Amino acid sequence: MASLRHRVPGGAKPTDKREDSPDKAEVRLAPDTKIVTTKQRGNKRRNGLIFFLGGLVGLLAAGFLAQRNDLLDLPELGDISMDNLIDVLPAGFVSDARDLMKGERDAVSYDSFQVGLNLSAQGITAKHPVVMVPGVISTGLESWGTTNSSRQYFRKRLWGSWSMMRALVLDQEGWKKHIMLDKYTGLDPPGIKLRAAQGFDAADFFITGYWIWNKILENLATIGYDPTNSFTAAYDWRLSYANLEVRDQYFTRLMSYIETAYKTSNKKAVIVSHSMGAQVMFYFFHWVAAPNGGGGGDDWVEKYVDSWINISGCMLGAVKGLPAVLSGEMKDTAQLNEFAVYGLEKFLSREERVEIFRAMPGISSMLPIGGDAVWGNATWAPDDLPGQKVSYGQLLNFKHYNGSSEYKNLTMEESLSYLYNTSEQWYVDQLKGSYSHGVAHTTAEVEANEKDPRKWINPLETRLPLAPSLKIYCFYGVGKPTERSYYYHHPENPFSSLNITIDTGLTQDNIDHGVILGEGDGTVNLLSAGYMCNRGWNMHRYNPAGVKIKVYEMPHEPDRFSPRGGPNTGDHVDILGRSSLNDMILRVAAGHGDEIEHNVVSNIETYADRVKITEEPEYL
Ligand SMILES: *[C@@H]1O[C@H](CO)[C@@H](O)[C@H](O)[C@H]1NC(C)=O
Ligand SMILES: *[C@@H]1O[C@H](CO)[C@@H](O)[C@H](O)[C@H]1NC(C)=O
Ligand SMILES: *[C@@H]1O[C@H](CO)[C@@H](O)[C@H](O)[C@H]1NC(C)=O
Ligand SMILES: *[C@@H]1O[C@H](CO)[C@@H](O)[C@H](O)[C@H]1NC(C)=O
Ligand SMILES: *[C@@H]1O[C@H](CO)[C@@H](O)[C@H](O)[C@H]1NC(C)=O
Ligand SMILES: *[C@@H]1O[C@H](CO)[C@@H](O)[C@H](O)[C@H]1NC(C)=O
Ligand SMILES: *[C@@H]1O[C@H](CO)[C@@H](O)[C@H](O)[C@H]1NC(C)=O
Ligand SMILES: *[C@@H]1O[C@H](CO)[C@@H](O)[C@H](O)[C@H]1NC(C)=O
For labelling alongside 605, which of 344, 402, 423, 566 has CA 20 to 30 A away? Predict the structure, then answer.
């Protein structure tokens, strides 16, 4: 890593102007504080604080400390004064972080390479070329601009590094200007150039010490993978999918990579996608076949792709995505991993966050898909529990507003309509021009949609590729409470430009600071993770070629002593380090995918029965 030589410009100082941000001091306790490493200390306040800061944030502070203690190498920090930074960190943070850091270091080696070594001992070796497609937010973004204001950031990561943190603290305006796309074109603003980092480095670690894909890389390497037969297809997750091709020719590159891998190894590729990567791949499969896309024809996928391993995919979006763009909420929104969250939450107000999220059209691809048919109506939802008082289907609740028609409770469809009605035209245009969130009920509709790129992320409006020998593996975590519906109210701050914010003061019954939790992996709701894999793709119109789908649910059984949850976590991101997941990835890559058993432990079958989407009569 390069070190920072230049001086911080403009005499910027760590700012405390966020003190007046209305939501600054909120500390929300999540229901699963049991995973917190400090639980055993039995100190409630500290537990709350730690959870709020999150394991990663702990690492952040630990990083600062480490600079002093030589625990960690942080070359990118350059010449910022540690004291300045520590000043802006919350009280109590530093000592908690020290403990966390220690916990992480003790736990970090829990089974690096072990899974690979075990399998290797059983004779499992590399077979198919592997392409990894990371999720939203976990890919680093580097500046390549050379204008005056960008030069200082040349080839620094303005997302996913200590440089990001530094820029957020010292040059917030500059950082915002770089990170937000142009509202009208959805591309880089004039004079700014941010590109996804490339290679394995793009997504192995988010910041020093915080692994994302690294454990998978370690294990793959152990059975014989290296840069000649594996590849990280990193993308700029801020862009709408169509613009990934327009600006970066991402899909063209991916297509040619896979073709080359096939030519050189004579083996079809195994694709491993995480989170939003599932949607990117789903889009790619349409694109690659379509005449208005890659032009590969309907048999391209059959010819070049052996399997698609889809980890924690959010094919039907994540409920969390909605409050992010609606009101800048970010209780670890949509897999925003905690480091980023920490920075964004601490240094940016909600109003600024709304603006930033909306100016990243890629994030909006995670708005929930399927409307009320999947997510429920005003009185009922497929995943409601017996005896539930207020249905999950009532997605946005306005408790304190009696009768006033301006604030009626909203279902999923109404909430999206509310979002359209209240947001700026450029955002609405970006959304409507890029994505579609509905349901197609007939084969004719589904087939017609193959021509419409806006539908290509939506598995309820388009079909799987016509690749009868393709295998899809859906691996996802279950059993971690996940945001399912919300209580909203007027913002407390009368000067806020936001019309509504989450009523974080409301905690009663099952409402936790204005949020009602349901089932999922902590980020993606069970309905989104499970519906297509367990039901949707059994329907002829969505899977006419009969692609084989295997589901393996992984219950969240975190190790409380490990900040990242240890070898049995089901958490959306940390699952990438889970032993059983690594084991399965290696088996599929090695051509032993058939050894994996179908494993469904959640209630998804029951919920899927209730979803209001049915097979057409002629295929029943
Ligand atoms: C590796 O194999 C040993 C013995 O078969 C087993 O005890 C251990 O749990 C395995 N480790 C992993 C990470 O799978
Ligand atoms: C960039 O910097 C140069 C020299 O410092 C200056 O002359 C020029 O006006 C600057 N350009 C802009 C657009 O600020
Ligand atoms: C919601 O859907 C349920 C189940 O189909 C139905 O019984 C109920 O009448 C619907 N409620 C409304 C308000 O449409
Ligand atoms: C709720 O009802 C009361 C009495 O009818 C009314 O004064 C008040 O303005 C209402 N509140 C809202 C937010 O509509
Ligand atoms: C919205 O739902 C809440 C319960 O979640 C209820 O208390 C409130 O009266 C409802 N508001 C309207 C306008 O129906
Ligand atoms: C949004 O606007 C449309 C058209 O004016 C209206 O029919 C719809 O009810 C509005 N949606 C909400 C949630 O207010
Ligand atoms: C608040 O509502 C107004 C009027 O509907 C709308 O113009 C404005 O954009 C909304 N603000 C936000 C942040 O959505
Ligand atoms: C990927 O897996 C998720 C569950 O993790 C599922 O919701 C989604 O439908 C899957 N998508 C594909 C294309 O396999």
Answer: 566
pLDDT at 10 over 50: no
Confidence class for position 342, pLDDT limits 50, 70, 90: low
Could you tell me which of 432, 398, 402 has the C-alpha nearest to residue 417? Answer: 432
To test the pocket of ligand 4, the residue of 398, 401, 402 to mutate (highest count of ligand atoms within 8 Å of its CB) is: 402
Q: Write out residues with Cβ below 6 Å of ligand 3.
A: 377-380
- Ligand closest to the CA atom of residue 280: 8
Q: Is 574 a catalytic residue?
A: no
Q: Which atom of ligand 1 is nearest to the CA of 567?
A: 13
**Confidence category of residue 234, pLDDT binned at 50, 70, 90:** very high
Name the catalytic one among 171, 521, 571, 574: 521
Mean residue pLDDT across the chain: 80
Q: Which residues contact 586 (CB under 8 A, 6 or more apart)?
A: 115, 116, 119, 124, 219, 220, 223
Q: Could you say which ligand is closest to the alpha carbon of residue 372? A: 3
Question: pLDDT tens digits for 123-180?
Answer: 999 999 999 999 877 788 999 999 998 999 999 999 887 788 788 878 889 999 999 9
Which is more confidently placed, 497 or 288?
288
Ordered DSSP codes for 567-586: GG---TTGGGG-HHHHHHHH
Q: What is the DSSP string of 497-519?
A: S-S-EE-TT--BTTEETTEEEES
Which overall architecture, per CATH, does domain 128-139+212-317+440-479+521-612 show? 3-Layer(aba) Sandwich (3.40)
By alpha-carbon position, which residue is closest to atom 8 of ligand 6?
A: 417
Is the CB–ligand 8 distance for residue 315 below 6 Å? Answer: yes
Active site includes 521?
yes
d(CA 350, CA 421): 19
CA atoms within 13 A on the CB side of 460: 26
Q: Is the CB of 608 under 6 A from ligand 8?
A: no
- State the ligand closest to the CA atom of 498: 7
Q: Are 556 and 570 in contact (CB under 8 A)?
A: yes
